[in-house]
Queue: 2 jobs
Job 1
Amino acid sequence: MNRATSRHGDLRNLLSVADLGPDIAAGIDEVMALTDTFVEVSERKIPKVPALRGRTVVSLFFEDSTRTRLSFETAAKRLSADTMNFSVSTSSVKKGESLRDTIETIEAMGVDAIVVRHASAGVPKQIAQWSQSAVINAGDGWHEHPTQALLDCYTIRQHGGDLAGKQIAIVGDIRHSRVARSNVAAFSALGADVTLVAPPTLLPPSLEGWPVKVSHDLDAVLATTDVCYLLRMQRERMTEALIPSLREYTASFGLSSSRADRLPQHAIIMHPGPINRGVEISAEVADRENAVIIDQVRNGVAVRMAVLFLLLGSGTSWGGDADV
Amino acid sequence: MAERERRLTPPYGGVFVARTTVMTADDMQRATKRMAHEIIERNHGLEGIVLIGLQTGGIPLAARLAEALQKIEGVDVPTGCVDVAFYRDDIGLRPVLPEAATEIPCDLDSRTVILVDDVLFTGRTIRAALDALTNFGRARSVQLAVMVDRGHRELPIRPDYVGKNLPTRRDEVVDVTSDGVELGEMLK
């Protein structure tokens, strides 16, 4: 199969939201349309189609994950692909094998797609340069997590329609968040107005080129917010004291019941998970009707089916044009 | 001759140039009515019948068949649609993308399913559809209704209800719309 890079962007890989094509909105629309069909598949009594029979998807996770890894694995299985699991703790990486040798070893077994998560930004891109398989970024350091952005777009659309003109507040640890980077790119490509809400220490050193507004006051933006997107406090990535204490963070930026009450009636509350109840979101708010966190997880499987099918099965490039 | 652009219709893409009109809209309506009568005759009524149109050409046809059945028997037959993209045997060989989500109106266990498509050609799409249906229950029987049977079968599949048998060359293209059926070629 011809897997050359087309004018629609990188057909072979999904490393960042920008890979969805020069017209990111069109690329996202295509994934969304395909996701609709996979949502239907997921609701069947036998939620499985033979679309990727004989293909092999390997998940290569150098960092802990439950939902993303399970989500990709479920997606691949529902497409009838074979899945292989590589977890660093039980692999030869522990014996000192280099990343390149690991990739070459895996490739030699004949895989069609590699799903990578790594603590360092750029590792998926590096792997893509070494490998013939399709590479999907499942989160690299502080850089990107494109399938999370796609499933968030899908979930917002499902609950509130078109993203154009929506006021989306992304609250919390923006600095260490790959989810925020991918989501800002995707949300603004679809015409939403994104406001980043965080203390100055949890914002990236430079916001040049980010199509966003910035606020340091959550209470000031609540009343005009359509989507309140909370991020997890990533304590494992914090190498210095960026906030005085978690309690103080919760007092100023946590979504408490009284803050959630001040959101407009139609507003939805999102979180990429895993949630820290009582830190960025109160336990009561996380269980409210308009907290769509579980829907995000559910849609994640269908979105990842769409991405895997587009990369491995459809024979088209992002944007829908024939390329075989 | 009219030129219509068929943008993404797999596996074509290109410009369809019609050479002859094979059926007019009236012809299609008459054929639909006849097929409706044949369905009722063969199944001794409409008990347990489900119409399933194939994406995308079979859907308007299934709707018109349902309408005709309702006029004759006064019964609303459950109607759905199926997209067979994920069941095709040529995934990876040519561009395959689903057109829309599948919608099966009820459990198919011990129902009589009538698959409806516009053109029957190699039979591979029907093979894929039969595969897809097994995920929705064990139908008592599956029958096939098509507006045009153009021959060139590659699998042991035959239609039960045919609007028109149309001898064609392999490289010709049959285009079915609500205005009628045209035979022509694809300009690449």
Job 2
Amino acid sequence: MSTERRRGRREPEPTEPSGQDLQQQQAHRRIERRALLQGALGVGGACAAAGWLSLAPAHWPLSLRDPDGEIGKPKPKISSLPEGGFVVPDAPSVADLGVAHGSQLRDMLRGALDALGGIGRFIQRGDVVVIKPNVAFERPAALGATTNPEVLTALIELVREAGAKEIRVADNPIESPESCFARSGIQAAAQAAGARLYLPNPTSFALLGTPGATWIERWPFFWAPFEGANKVIGVSPIKDHNLCRASMTTKNWYGLLGGRRNQFHQDIHGIIADLALMLRPTFVVLDATRVLFRSGPTGGSLGDVKPGHTVVVSRDSLAADAYGWDNLLERQGEALPAYFEKCAARKLGQPDWRKLTLREVNVG
Amino acid sequence: MLAPGVATRGEADQRNAGKSSPPEARVFVRDGLRSYRKRYDVREVYWGAGISAGLIAVVAWISYRGAHPDPSLMDISAALQAAPEGARPLERPAEPPSARTAPLGGVAHVSEPPTPGAAAGGTERGALPSGLSADGFTEGKLGAYSPDTLYIKIDGRAEFYESFGVQSLHAVTLEGPAGASVEIELYDLGESRNALGCYNGERPPGMDSTLENGSTFRFDRNAAFLARGRHYVRFVGSDESAAVLAEVRRLMELFRRELVGEELPWGFALFVEQLKLAPAQVGYLRENAFSFGFAHDVYKASLSPADSQEDMEAFVSVKADAAAAARAALQYQAAFRSQGVPAGQTADGLPLSKDEFLGSVSTATSSERWVIGVRGAPSVERLSQTLEQLRAGLRALPPAVLAKAVPSAEAGEAATAEEAAGAGRVGAEPEGAGRAPSSTAKTLEGEDQ
């Protein structure tokens, strides 16, 4: 080894280079220089590219920098409801609020809808209609905490008469949806009337984008019933509410939210204003056949419920709610809950129902 | 060991040395150790190809997984629907009468929804008595809820119970014949004053209560309500049928017998036993009394008939010592001023605040470690008279009751019962809190609603 290395290091005998040797030497130098330059350029370029990719600020083109890992996260799909909601065009010479009093629910509902131009104005043949009742609690309907199933039945029948291809009934009670739908009578009513019932499960939610919303700009939404739907109707009871003072048609959309939605109670009026922004319905029905006038929203005693014998229909849920506040909860003179002002500031309704056209009918 | 065709460095040098080529002007390797390999070992090629293929496979796999992420990573709604950390076990709901047996033709998505904390078997009964099933009613679904999960059961109403320091809710439904049912909600509020405060907070105005053997209760059509010890119980019947009402009454008796009772909280003892007010007139506000953020641990009594336009209330709160009570009284006075306008003083020098719209007057003062006050009095005379009755009632409280009169732990004014009892006797008023001499304790009985 050592001999070999010494031999390997031995300098060759100096000889006088010939002309041919010199030419070869020059050619060899050119080749070496070119190779060096090419190599240097290659290595330099690779280093520069690697530096750019790894060190350039995240917003620069081709930058792979991801200091907080956000860029590398999978991007969930953001669903969105139709722009402009599910509203139908304005129609002149019809009322904005249809109010019907009586005891024959189907006739009452038809009368209130006729005041707005009839069910045919809202539902056309082939429509896929989502109806959102309030099924929030496992209570019998008589206790006023949930939508009256008889009102739901009448509504389904009218929508079917108008030619709807499919009618879906959906709500997302937090606790035990099956029990809530069963105990409230909504399940039996919906199925008997031929509607399709949608109960929530974890796969039926999607992340919904609501541009401009304060709290729910992106939030899990009970999406499954809305796939392919082109009309949405809310039918909600009228209730006292421990936090927002009154739960009516606008608050009703809260039942479509998933996730830890109870945290929104910290700004209950703000979230209701977001709900009005999130969902612009075809029309709403304020079910005031019973009025839970205290101990809401859960109630419990029949002493907390009084008969209302009224249904209110409107395209403007804020107006319907304001009418209910004044005339059905009988709180006229008291200031409206703050969410009315917040919704009005976003031009999502008219809280002064007296400025609108109201048509009132007595049926049966 | 070298592969065939691979020259050693020495052999390469020997070959180079034997040639008559000019010396190489090498740039990096000048010492002649550089070896030139004319051929490559085929196994090296295989290894290289294998490693390259492996690397390409890794890159391809990463690219594919990046383009097709695990759906569970995307399932935000499922994650958000999960129980919050610390959620206590809940029941797994029993099959409702018709949910599972209903024809599925009309049901699109029937599956077990997330019920955070669901636990099998109903082992978590809390203070629920055993043997609830009787007379054709059988015990059905049972649920236990912590303050963190209360909203699952009573979303929108949970905050009311939280304001009284609810510690747990146990709920069970008794299924009866023909779809009848009675739901029992048993709230553990930690202390009897919270239970009574909750009970009275849900009592409709004008509705009487019965106080009997440590239980305060009432019946209201299909429902009944009970405060006993640290518990508040709601019995909600599905209707007013005879069977349901009988079941509600049976359950009321059972719970009155089985739940542990306690003596009345000192504030109730003051208003009910000393000042002879009806139990239904007395309430307890654990926090945010009269919408004053600083006002907590306050007993109040409504002194106006339910059907009147008046809304007069007397209130009392206990503090750790006289200095704390004097400070609190000043806070109340300032708070009343902020809601009205100054309206002079009482005969004994207490500042009055007048409601601009109702014309009623309010004030507060301290007496030893007590803060006492009147809110919404229709006249200064009624206010002064009521304050004097409060002072007299406090003086007449038995030592055993005084010993129990300590600030709530939540108020951060912990004082031992012994200290409280020692300072509890009503004596001289604090400086500036003028007090008229009083002899006997007049009762407020005549103003019962």
